[in-house]
Amino acid sequence: MIVVSLWSLRAFGQLIQLIPSAFEEINSKAEEVNYKGKKVLKVTAMPGGSAVAIVKGIEFRNGTIEVEVAGAPAANADSTNRGFIGVSFRIQKGDTLRYETIYLRPTNARSTDQLRRNHAVQYSSHPNYSWFRLRKENPGLYESYADLVPGEWTKMKIVVKDRQAKLFVHDATQPCLIVNDLKRGISSGGVGLWADQGVDGYFRNLKITLVN
Fold it and tell me: Are 13 and 2 in contact (CB under 8 A)?
């Protein structure tokens, strides 16, 4: 099951069953599967873009998102696939889907190529600020290193306040990535589980804390 805890001036907890009906599927398929002996949520991208499975009933501006993810290239993925998997937040729907994303590239983390290792975690902002644009305009500013293993569970904690987001990995007390200028400014919207094309993406133990 996925636990979603909501906090504002008063604490409020809600337990959500790990079933596809708890999520709105955007270019994605969300399904309950067995992975490493446990029931978890698998999110698969449909043809045409990255997958976002949005938690129903959440409006997120500031707060904390915690989740465990396991991502790896699917069996039919090409050799350039890095197993992109992560979290989208402040999602706004309309003619164009808009959201912030922080995600992992698990296959990069233990590469012997130091430059690839430096690209293990990434921030991007859809649709205007792709990872490619951010890397081209500000090399190294929106990505960094964290120790990851493809297909193994990784704890992610994203702390968002106004225009800043911090990513903590593996219960670390210090963030491995700090974004001080979220490209969509101060906004609010949904929270989603994100996976790229050609990725087997698994999620468990999601906790969302809202802060005024």
Answer: no
User: What are the boundaries of each domain within the chain?
Assistant: 2-211
Q: What is the pTM of this model?
A: 0.91
CB 104 within 8 A of CB 85: yes
Distance in angstroms (rounded) separating the CA atoms of residues 23 and 26: 9
Tokens of 204: 């468990």
Q: Tell which CATH classification among 3.40.50.1110, 2.60.120.560, 1.10.1060.10, 3.90.950.10 matches the domain 2-211.
A: 2.60.120.560
| Interval 123-160: pLDDT, tens | 999 999 999 999 999 999 999 999 999 999 999 999 99
Residue 16: its pLDDT value, please? 52
Q: Provide CB contacts within 8 A for 182, sequence distance 6+.
A: 90, 100, 125, 160, 163, 164, 165
Alpha-carbon distance of 130 to 143, in angstroms, equals 12
Count of C-beta atoms within a 10 Å radius of residue 57: 12
